[in-house]
Amino acid sequence: MDTSRQIARRLLEVGAVKLQPQTPFTWASGLRSPIYCDNRVLLSFPEIRNEIVSALAGAAGAMDSIEGIAGVATAGIPHGALVADRLRVPFIYIRSSAKEHGRKNQIEGRLEAGRRYLVVEDLISTGGSSLKAAEVLRAAGGEIGGALAIFTYQFPSATRAFQHAEIPLTTISNYAALLEEAEQSGQISAEEAATLADWRRDPRAWSDAFVN
Ligand SMILES: O=P(O)(O)OC[C@H]1O[C@H](OP(=O)(O)OP(=O)(O)O)[C@H](O)[C@@H]1O
Ligand SMILES: O=C(O)c1cc(=O)[nH]c(=O)[nH]1
């Protein structure tokens, strides 16, 4: 079994994937969606967490000269810190906005201008959170070696956004693998599969059309 399917299996195993077509989730982007994949749950299972970190660190290790990890707040922080620890490289994290008290930082940790960072995020929907963090990092003088996440919904608009920002995106699992795994293991009903197929054809239209 390939890594993306194996990780998808783990996501289902820990109950990270929730379906609520009648009472949709609101995503960070504001989109409403029948599905939510909560990668934070993986952190509570040490063996599975170890498997995830190994896959992320393996992917990061295969990239060209990554000199530091930049976690995206909040869910990218624990995964990113674990990967940085495994690779023995510096770690920083990027808040969605600057703190309003204390040192008023948006980037926490010691950023070194010119250092090549890998942006680590738990999940990519629109890609907006990771790309915003990458922008903040670039503006502060950091180089971006790429972005790495556990899961992506594989939206073509997200792919284009990463290409436009010239940031190569790598993920260790994805929506197609999740759907295959859920269908083959019988963890999704025909009705749920139909809802997801309908949603996936045009997530924005599905979101806009949803009436409470
Ligand atoms: O690709 P995007 O459209 O930006 O969506 C993905 C983001 O949404 C979630 O963050 P959220 O801000 O909801 O929660 P968190 O604080 O737990 O990271 C997730 O952790 C990603 O950061
Ligand atoms: O886009 C989001 O906010 C989002 C979607 C999802 O499935 N999981 C998550 O943690 N965030």
Automatic annotation (TrEMBL):
Residues 69-144 form the Phosphoribosyltransferase domain. It comes from the Bacteria. One of its GO terms (biological process) is pyrimidine nucleobase biosynthetic process. The keyword Endoplasmic reticulum does not apply. Its cofactor is Mg(2+). NCBIfam families: pyrE (TIGR00336). PANTHER family: OROTATE PHOSPHORIBOSYLTRANSFERASE, URIDINE 5'-MONOPHOSPHATE SYNTHASE. This is Orotate phosphoribosyltransferase. It comes from Neolewinella aquimaris.
